[in-house]
Design brief:
The complex is a heterodimer of chains A (about 180) and B (about 270). With about 180 residues, chain A is mostly helical. Chain A has one domain. Chain A is built from 3 helices and no strands. The longest helix of chain A is centred in the middle third of the chain and has 133 residues. The relative contact order of chain A is 0.02. The mean pLDDT of chain A is about 85. Chain B is mainly alpha-helical and about 270 residues long. Chain B has one domain. Helices cover about 75% and strands about 0% of the residues of chain B. In chain B, a hairpin with a 2-residue loop joins β1 and β2. Chain B is globular. The termini of chain B are far apart. Classes of the chains: A mainly alpha (about 180), B mainly alpha (about 270). At the A-B interface, α1 and α2 of A face α1, α2, α3, α4 and α5 of B. Chain A: Keywords: ATP synthesis, Cell membrane, CF(0), Coiled coil, Hydrogen ion transport, Ion transport, Membrane, Transmembrane, Transmembrane helix, Transport. Chain A: One of its GO terms (cellular component) is plasma membrane.
């Protein structure tokens, strides 16, 4: 092993130009670089490019899918909101209808009840009138015979003559009705 | 050993032998069919293997949710793909050039970083010929792209005749444009990469061996100045890492810009 300074000193002698062309080095550099270029061109770059484009596609695909999903969700939401609004509208309509119907029913019922009441009252009145009429009739007959028998007894004379008897009673009753009694 | 070396230098009467271009002429590690295989040659192959191995394994998984390795690979590939190829060439045409630009960027990056990796510590592209190779390839590619798109004469016109300039200026501008767009570009591409790597490495060697020389042969103040040089060497090494990354990026960025210029309808 020679010392560094010996090498340095020894090389003082011949000074090769550092710019000289060494053809063997030129050719070797070209060949080695050429092989490296071929290897990268054929074996490295396609893999990287494929990875890059696949990744880009994956990201873009993911974004597109997300956008589609978002649009779908938006549409669904709008649809549901429309349905909800419809349902609310429907409910309000039904409530309104029910209220109207209720009011109508109540009015009808009231009318019916009033009619019934009127009818009952009418019926009662008619019955009372009829009974009064009957009572008056029977009373009239009763009062007539009573009064006749009473008057016959009092005057001591039989009033057999029906016509005369009838006239007396009628007159008597008429006086009763007009409120001038005692004129007999 | 060191004493012997010092004795040699002392005997030769030279002072500090500053590192020169000679340190880039490494002896062959072994020989195949009479061709000496040197360290930078092995580094080229190793870099290509590392770049391909990493990207291939990272790309192979193809998971929708990447693991750490795949994430790193996608970040590396996506960086060149998006912020170099797509941003400069434009989203219409960039896809065809992505493998080329990715291979170019990581190949140069790893080869440059070799200069800072312990036990390798040699920038591959400090060998000018290797930088020539990549710059020449770039030149062929962007010109081929332009000729394929516009035809030979159309492409020459695109690169040489500036638009929006009165024809009176053509005699002056056309040779200039042709010179700068067609002739100078590969030279500057190659030299920029080569010179940065070359200078960075020589600077590091200078600080390291200079520090050693100060400590071993100067004594006295050398015991202070030597370690100081080493501290500076560490700082320079970090600077070099930045330069290595930047040069790989610039090389690929210019490649993309040249391709874009060749594809453009107006320039």
């Amino acid at each position: 092993m020679k010392s560094l300074f010996v090498i340095l000193a020894a090389e003082e002698g011949h000074e090769p130009s550092p710019l000289a062309v060494e053809w063997i080095e030129v050719v070797l550099a070209l060949v080695v670089f050429g092989l490296l270029f071929l290897a990268i061109w054929k074996l490295v770059a396609p893999n990287f490019e494929k990875t890059f484009s696949e990744r880009t596609a994956a990201i873009e695909g993911g974004l597109a899918a997300a956008e589609t999903k978002q649009a779908e969700a938006d549409a669904k939401l709008a649809e549901l909101e429309a349905q909800l609004a419809d349902a609310r509208h429907e409910a309000a309509r039904i409530r309104e209808e029910a209220r109207e119907q209720g009011a109508a029913i109540i009015a009808e019922m009231r009318e019916q009840a009033q009619a019934e009441a009127g009818r009952i009252v009418e019926h009662g009145k008619a019955q009372i009138e009829a009974e009064r009429q009957q009572a008056v009739t029977s009373l009239r007959a009763e009062v007539g015979s009573l009064a006749t028998s009473l008057a016959g007894r009092i005057v001591g004379e039989s009033l057999d003559d029906d016509a005369r008897q009838g006239r007396v009673v009628e007159r008597f009753l008429a006086e009763l009705e007009t409120g001038t009694p005692g004129a007999n | 050993m060191i004493m012997a070396a010092s004795a040699t230098i002392a005997a030769e009467g030279g002072g500090f032998p500053a590192p020169g271009p000679g340190i880039f002429d490494l002896p062959p590690v072994f020989e195949i069919a009479g061709i000496g295989v040197t360290k930078p040659m092995l580094q080229l192959v190793l870099a290509a293997a590392l770049v391909f191995g990493f990207l291939y394994v990272a790309a192979r998984q193809r998971a929708m949710v990447p693991g750490k390795l795949q994430f790193a690979g996608e970040g590396a590939y996506g960086f060149v793909r998006n912020s170099v190829a797509r941003d400069i060439i434009g989203s219409h045409d960039f896809q065809r050039f992505v493998p080329y630009l990715v291979a170019m960027f990581f190949f140069i990056l790893v080869n440059n970083l070799f200069a800072s990796i312990p036990f390798i510590q040699f920038p591959t592209f400090s060998r000018a010929s290797m930088a020539y190779a990549l710059a020449g390839l770039s030149w062929i590619i962007y010109n081929a792209v332009g000729i394929w798109k516009h035809g030979f004469l159309g492409y020459l016109k695109l690169q040489s005749v500036p638009s929006g300039v009165s024809p009176a200026m053509y005699p002056l501008l056309v040779p200039l444009e042709f010179f700068s767009n067609i002739l100078v570009r590969p030279v500057t591409l190659a030299l920029r990469l080569f010179a940065n790597m070359f200078a960075g490495h020589i600077l590091l060697v200078l600080f390291a061996t200079g520090g050693l020389y100060l400590v071993e042969h100067v004594g006295g103040i050398g015991y202070v100045a030597g370690p100081l040089a080493w501290i500076l060497a560490v700082a320079v090494a970090f600077l070099e890492i930045l330069v290595q990354v930047l040069q790989a990026y610039v090389f690929v960025l210019l490649n993309a810009m040249y391709i874009q210029g060749a594809l453009a309808d107006e320039h």
